[in-house]
Design a protein that fits this description.
The chain is mainly alpha-helical. It contains eleven helices and two strands, in the order H-H-H-E-E-H-H-H-H-H-H-H-H. It has a two-stranded antiparallel ribbon. Helix 2 packs across helix 3 and helix 6 runs antiparallel to helix 9.
Length: 261
């Protein structure tokens, strides 16, 4: 039998794990209060700095809300999409995630978000999608009628508007995990979008690119409004693939191929 060396775990991590386990197992609920600092020190037989570090970690990850001097103790928070942002952002920016992997993820995420949005009966959420698509169309119109040097800031504006359009679709999906994961990686993907458009040095080519993207958004919006889940998913993935494809390597295109069926 092979044994592994015993690893020394910092005391604050053990406190964090016990509190998170209490939430997972239903012994702690949103709105519950943890004991005060002194009581936690006694309960865990640790120093004040150890308790404070554990609370700092739990606060930073959205598990509890702490206020200095609050005699009621830290409050257990409900789950929110923002709770996933930090770990996913760290993964996408620090763990060597490739461009192809990010776009694969976007194809999956946005395709399923569009499918669920189309299946939804939330008229207000769908109206927000239409409003965002209209914003993209207005920018494309301005770009096509501007002086040659005027569209320089359009890639930046378009990246923001495109992000808002996809955010509205994810919100309409009604799935908190799709919203959380999409929001968490949106920064990295928006950067790629800006690079994609920023590479256009010819104003005519840029305005054409913006116009096509606005048309794609309009076509997707139409399928969502028509409550066509299959059509919405197909258009969403095709739109994203077309947006990036002429800046990808042959290997990257091959990696994306299986997701286009």
């Amino acid at each position: 039998m092979r044994f592994e060396p015993v690893k020394k775990v910092p005391s604050y991590e053990m406190i964090v794990e016990q509190i998170e386990a209490g939430i997972r197992e239903g012994r702690l609920h949103p709105g519950d209060r943890l004991p005060g600092e002194r009581r936690l020190m006694e309960t865990f037989s640790v120093s004040r700095p150890t308790v404070r570090e554990a609370m700092r970690v739990l606060h930073a990850t959205g598990v509890v809300n702490t206020r200095a001097g609050d005699p009621r103790g830290p409050e257990v928070l409900p789950f929110t999409p923002q709770a996933l942002e930090r770990p996913l952002l760290r993964m996408t920016h620090q763990q060597g995630t490739t461009r192809a992997e990010l776009i694969q993820f976007r194809l999956l995420l946005e395709g399923q978000s569009a499918l669920l949005a189309a299946a939804s009966d939330d008229a207000q959420a769908k109206e927000e999608i239409s409003s965002r698509a209209a914003g993209l169309a207005r920018l494309a119109d301005r770009a096509s009628t501007a002086e040659p040097e005027a569209p320089a800031d359009h890639p930046e504006q378009f990246g923001v508007l495109l992000s808002g359009f996809h955010t509205a679709i994810r919100a309409a999906s009604g799935n908190q995990l799709l919203q959380a994961t999409g929001q968490a990686v949106d920064g990295a993907l928006t950067t790629i979008a800006r690079q994609r458009l920023g590479g256009e040095t010819d104003s005519t080519a840029l305005s054409s690119r913006l116009r096509r993207s606005a048309q794609d958004a309009a076509a997707l919006t139409e399928r969502i409004q028509a409550q066509d889940p299959t059509g919405a998913r197909k258009i969403a993935t095709e739109n994203i693939y077309r947006f990036y494809k002429d800046r990808l390597t042959a290997e990257e295109l091959e990696a994306l191929g299986p997701l286009l069926g």
